Amino acid sequence: MDSQIPYDDYPVVFLPAYENPPAWIPPHERVPRPDYNNELTQFLPQTITLKKPPGAQVIPDSDAHRAGLQEGDQVLAVNDVDFQDTEHSKAAEILKTAREISMHVRFFPYNYYHQKERTVH
To answer: What are the per-10-residue average pLDDT scores of the chain (121 residues)?
Structure first.
């Protein structure tokens, strides 16, 4: 009745090297960073409505930027189409052809900046 798996049959898993957590800094000694704040409401989903000519891009100081769209926003839905499981080609077609766009977005900078850093290196 020995139901144990032999040790040699376990998969080999390589873990990343351990990193020590950053040292604790008392609040009065902390240096403020412009990309970090404790205002958690910035991470709540929001709806942004845009009217645009077809094919317009989201660039700084554009209508999309002024409406509240920012780098690091994760697009959850556009014109009631769920973008979380939509293929890239279909999503791009919706964004290019629609003249009025209602976007449901959530600010999620970690994934955006993490991917951006990986492409720069």
So the answer is: 68 83 85 71 83 62 75 84 84 82 83 51 47
Number of C-beta neighbours around residue 98 at 10 A = 16
* pLDDT given at position 13: 79
User: Do 65 and 59 touch, CB atoms closer than 8 A?
Assistant: yes
- According to the model, what pLDDT value does residue 54 have? 54
pTM, entire model: 0.49
What residue has token string 């660039």?
Answer: 59
Count the neighbouring beta carbons within 10 Å of the beta carbon of residue 73. 20
Residue whose token pair is 């957590």: 21
If phi > 0 it is left, if psi is from -120 to 50 it is alpha, else beta; for residue 62 that is beta
Identity of the amino acid at 34: P
Question: Over the chain, what HEC string results?
Answer: CCCCCCHHHCCCCCCCCCCCCCCCCCHHHCCCCCCCCCCHHHHCCEEEEEECCCCCCCCCCCHHHHHCCCCCEEEEEECCEECCCCCHHHHHHHHHHCCEEEEEEEECHHHHHHHHHHHHC
